[in-house]
Every structure is written in structure tokens, then in C-alpha cells.
Design a protein that fits this description.
9 strands, homodimer, 7-stranded parallel beta sheet, 8 helices, alpha/beta
Amino acid sequence: MYLYVGLVHYPVYNKNNERIASAISTVDLHDIARVAKTYDVRKFFVITPLVDQQVLAERIRRHWTNGFGAGYNSDRKDAFELVAIVPSLEQAILTTTEIEGKVPLLIATDASIQNDRSISYERAREIIQDSRVIILLFGTAWGLDKCIIDRADYVLDPISGKSNYNHLSVRAAAAIVLDRLACGECVR
Amino acid sequence: MYLYVGLVHYPVYNKNNERIASAISTVDLHDIARVAKTYDVRKFFVITPLVDQQVLAERIRRHWTNGFGAGYNSDRKDAFELVAIVPSLEQAILTTTEIEGKVPLLIATDASIQNDRSISYERAREIIQDSRVIILLFGTAWGLDKCIIDRADYVLDPISGKSNYNHLSVRAAAAIVLDRLACGECVR
């Protein structure tokens, strides 16, 4: 399994459907890094073009990998060692290509969009288990900009719960999606 | 399905295995309320005996159900309407019994404990689908105190990911457990 996760802070939508760069949320980094570690993700890209936000994210990462946090909580260190802060999706693709020696497929997640590139969880598991290199993309704020969706090779079906309510936090969505995709053989 | 969720802030363990009351984390309330709404949970009990923490949690709840937040984001209102702040597990059991007309079973979650009351996800789904009234208990901080585990009718198996790492946030754990348990018939 060569699974990477990308948390996109630009371009994403705000509440008014405008294209924005969202702020880093430290709890996103903590929660998604720990989920990534649980499901054997190879790297967790935090994608933001804003330099001050890169500096903030890097400061958090270093606190837990090399700073006081590393000694205080080694489990958190293990999780944060997966975090890589990059300015763009392009850089995430380049880094992954350098590591794996092949260009990754992009699977975007979205709470509502279904199009001709939509795939089920079952199909996504097959692709992942087929030893393909994948970056699984999650959007912050009100979700991934259409240009990212258009660029993705596949768009994962929305999480369907028991109700019609589909307003999970990106942290919860990442946890559920990784449990569904990365752990086909896990006892559920 | 008569599924309730309880987020326990006392008694839980701290890092040094001492019994404590943990602080309310607003992101726990947001994330778990939204997960609860997604999976048709009937009520989300926030359990804390600390009066100042009850006041804080209640203030957050009212902001989203009746205050500015209710108009600003009605999806959040729908989620927060499930939140009930109670001083103890006993009160959560009483409230559930009043609503449902029968005493709930308690299923505790824990990242490591396995004992003679441990059950698989498959068995837990059967119990839930058997129209039993259930409160699913999650611990904050370093997890549920032994006295809660001892009191539970069942203890759910730990989440097994792809690695041996089992240090998820309670928010991520609640998302994964509810996806596994409450949505047996969902397309995954």
C-alpha cells in the first residue's frame, strides 16, 4: 500500500462559495496525523501556499518531532513524523514521485459531488491494493475547489451515514475514509 | 436503532494513570455532535460533574442551537440539538430510560482493554440492530476509568488499524466506531 494523504488549504471554498486559502487548524494536524499513522499512510501533506501558515505548521511539527513534545509524548512524535508541509499540490505530487519512483494517482474526496470519475469505496480499495501510488485529497473549509476535483483521477463517493446529514468535520471524514479504504482486511 | 453516545470527562485517566476530571474540549463537542447526527444517534451526552465545565458546554450548545450560531450555520444547529450536558453517567442512564421506557445497555470503548465482556464490531451491530437501547461510552484524556469499564455490559474491541499504533483522538475514534456500528447497511 502506497497511500499518501493531502490536506488542502488552497484552493478551497468558503461559506459563500468563493475560492480562498484557509487557515491551518492545529487540531486537523494532530487528528489526521494520528489517523494516518494508524492506517500506515506514508506521508501526510499539509498543503498551503501561505508562508506564515507554513511557518506555523512547521513550528507545530517541530515541537512534536524535535522539541519538548517529542519527549513529552512519543506517540505524537510518531504521528507528526508523517507530516510534510508543502506549498502546493504540485509539490506534493513531485515529492511522492521522488519517493516512490512513479507518479501518484489523485483521489479527491467531496461531501456531495458525483461525476463521471466517481468511484465507490470498494473500487477505491481495489485501486489501492493494486499497489498503485495514491494521494487521497481532503479539503478544509467548505471543501475542495472545482479545479482540484477536475484534476483528480477519481472522486470518492461521499460518506453516506444513516441520515441525509453530510456535514462532518474534515478530521472525522478523514478518519472514516481511511478506516474504510486502508483497512480492507481489518476485523470490523 | 436506539443509539446514544456518552463522552465521559470523569472518571477518566491522565497520563500518569491517575483518576481525573478532564476539561471540556469544544472541538470534541462539534466533531462528535456532527458524527452523531450523521449516524442517527438519538442523543449525545456530555458527561462532566464540574459545574464550571457544565456552564461552558451549555454556553457553547446554546450559541449553536439558539444564539448567533443557529442562524449562521443551521447544519451545526441540527448537530448541537443532540447535545445534552449531564453531571454523571447515572443521569445519562436515567434520561435515556425516561425517553425510551427501558434501561439502556452500556457499551464502553477502550484503546487496549480486552476482558470477558469484550465484543466484536459484528456482535455489537447485532445487539444494536436487535432494537436494544444502547449508550456507547467514549473516554476523554487517557481513557475511561476502570470503574466505568467494570460497570459496562460490554467492552468494544479496540480499533485495529493497519499498524500497531492505537493513539487516535477520541473524535476520530468516535467517527470510526459509529461508522462501523451504526451503518451496517451503508455502502462502504
